[in-house]
Amino acid sequence: MSTTLAFSVVSRVLLRQIRRCDLPIGRPVPDGAVLARDLGVPEIAVDQALRELHAAGVVADGVAGRVVAPVRQWGFSPPVPTASAQAAARTLRVMIYNDILRPGELLTPSDVAACLAVRYNRLDIGDALIELAAGGLVTPQAEPRGFIVRCRQHPRRRQQS
């Protein structure tokens, strides 16, 4: 079993933000309260995720607090989403921007699989939802299990208003 599969969903979202350079390597990691607000999750979930990432060598203690460690110090290879997961994320992003998926709506991998025209496996759908969470479009939900749509407005439209 891969180390990344044992991570919590919030840890996987933070890893995706690191891969996207939203949390750059060598830079300080924002405070847990800031990350919790940005992700729309409880601060205790972020604290747990940061502990998991610290144990795996992704987050290190620096002079100014926690920093994202260089990849060579990680205890595993960073996860890379498949082309199918990226395609599913693009499709879901468009569905959110076009109000097909509305704010507050619960998304589970099973529900997403049913609404997509192209068939994706559950792992790709899960990775697509993690990608959307890293971008702030959805937020992980513990109970009921899934992701909640947070935003429906396209970022370019939001900047113009």
Mind explaining what this structure looks like?
The model is unreliable at 1-5 and 156-161 (pLDDT under 50). This protein has 161 residues and is mainly α. Strands 3-5-4 form a 3-stranded antiparallel beta sheet. A two-stranded antiparallel sheet has the order 1-2. Helices cover 48% and strands 11% of the residues. A hairpin with a 2-residue loop joins strand 1 and strand 2. The protein has helices spanning 3-6, 9-19, 32-39, 43-55, 83-97, 109-115, 122-134, 155-160; strands at residues 59-62, 65-68, 106-107, 138-141, 146-149.
What ranges have pLDDT less than 50 throughout 5 or more consecutive residues? Answer: 1-5, 156-161
Number of strand segments = 5
Give the radius of gyration. 16 Å
| Helix-strand pattern | HHHHEEHEHHEEH
How far apart are the termini? Answer: 47 Å
Portion in strands: 5-15%
Mean pLDDT, all residues: 84
Portion of residues within helices: 40-55%
Count up the helices.
Answer: 8
How many strands, what sense, and barrel or not for the largest sheet? 3 strands, antiparallel
Structural class determined from secondary elements: mainly alpha
Sheet with most strands: strand arrangement: 3-5-4
Indicate the overall shape.
globular
